[in-house]
Write a structure and sequence with these properties.
The complex is a heterodimer of chains A (318) and B (301). Chain A contains 13 helices and 2 strands. Chain A has 318 residues and is mostly helical. In chain B, helix 1 packs antiparallel against helix 9, helix 2 packs antiparallel against helix 3 and helix 2 packs parallel to helix 4.
Chain lengths: 318, 301
Amino acid sequence: MFIRITIPTLLLMVLALVPFVAPGMQVLLTLALAKGIAVMGITVLLRSGQVSFGHALYFAIAAYGGAFTLMLMPGADLIVVFVFGIIAAVLSGIIVGLFVARYRFIFFAMLNLAFSMIFWSILEKFYHYTGGADGMRLPRPTVMWIELERGAYELVMFYLALALALGLGWFSMRWLDSPTGQLFRTIKTNETRLQYLGMSPQRVMLTGYVLSALLCGVGGIIMGLVQGVVTPEYAFWVRSGEMVFIAVLGGAGSVPGALVGAAIYEIVRTYASAFAGDIWQLVLGTFLLIIILFAPGGIAGIYSGVMDRIAGKKEEGE
Amino acid sequence: MNLTLFLLALFDGIAYAALVFIVAVGLTLIFGVMRILNVAHGSLYAMGAYLTASLTTFIVAAGLPPIFAFPCMLVSAVLIGAVIGGPLEWLLLRRIYHKPEVLQLLVTFAIFMILEDVQRLVWGTQPIFQSAALQLLGNVRVFSVNYTVYQLILLPMVAVALLLGLRFFLRRTVAGKLIVATTEDREAAQAIGIDADKVFLLTFIVGAGLAGLGGALASPTTSILPGIGADMIVLSFAVVATAGLGQIEGAALTALLIGLGRSFAVYVWPETQVLVPYLIMVAVLLVRPEGLFGSPAARKI
């Protein structure tokens, strides 16, 4: 058991030191953490056996919510931008969730895709409000009502992203183990039994769905604030596909796997896109097939397999 | 809205509905038989369009008469079905029939990602426009409106012929009956000696070929550019879901409904043209979650 905890702790300490040891990696890792938080949303959904091809919707809604906040309230503080962006994501999560929580599998995946495509085309068509394909700018907000230089701001965003990733990751894992979370996971194993217990699967599904929208929203607003601009590409299916890919890469249903997967993905992409920029989707798709067919546990599965071998004992299930 | 605009919207809607139906019927056929939603269906549509445009351009450049554009469409559809659809089913999908539905969705989604890039590698990102077939047939005048024969007569004719042909194929021919039997109960069908693997392969080839045919027929009417595959899979899913998954005749009516809704939106409030199909879908699914023509499935407990 000891070694299982040592390695993640060491990794975290290295991560926390990155701004001082390897400043070049700082922004890259902030973006990776933002994406990782969003991917946790997909991971949570995967625990109920559902996959969404449209969760970039909430990623984009939060970022656009932040952009609108900064446009309508110039000089708004980081906290205000954050809160409004996330409220936007959660509210839309509730509205869309009320509709899609009734569906499973194919319908669930495709209806989410349809909603994200609708939002994407709204962003593109109503360019008077949304800036069309050029998107909207998110000028650097104040942090606790203090103006910050670019360097200091990026440092704050890095630690904010790290803290949120850990906090929300811990919360998601606790939630999945809570009574509601157990019910949520029962949707995957035996939904009928849930109904026999007198529970409403729709309501349980909605709760999990809103949590996943919240996680995607947090990821989106960090991404928008760090990049300083949000474009309709945030809501495009390619982005949703990327999130699903990372969730499966990290290990279907593993919350820490989502973060590790996102970090690996982002680093590989940064260095590999110079060689494979044109065929990036092709590479992703091929890897997705390989993982599904040959390593369904993803990184989390491989990790616990290796750990088992080191610790020399059997896995206890799940 | 005067008569001219009304007729234009009506004809646009019919032409569009015909195309969407041809693609959607392939999707619903594959789902009906194999219980798999092929997310890569949109890519097959796009590749059918690209292939037709390339072949037609080649033939026109070689000095052959443009009438050969029509055989090109058929050739493209068959190629998409046999050369791409066949191996997909044989090499990949066959491995995942017994896996959870989530994994099946992920696999077809991965194929979709791969094929989107394959298109860009082969045909580039520049829009391609090849309307030889459209121009060849000329225009027809209905009341006060000039409209292309290709879109107003040929496309709906193909769609209707396809609908009747599929009905005939599934209900009157041996191969069709084998497909229906496998759909109804795979184990029972296998027990009486039907080769389910072969039936699945045949169905997938036909379905993929229909996606290719839809793309081939669409190619003269629009410029072909990256992204049409993603649009088409979402739209044809909207049609198929509104009709009820697996419903062939229902898909025809729903395609018409959605096609007309979309084309009237273009003339009344252009910004909403992309939204209307989905609004129709959401409205229908809110009232009837199993679709207009679907019947609620009995649950196994």
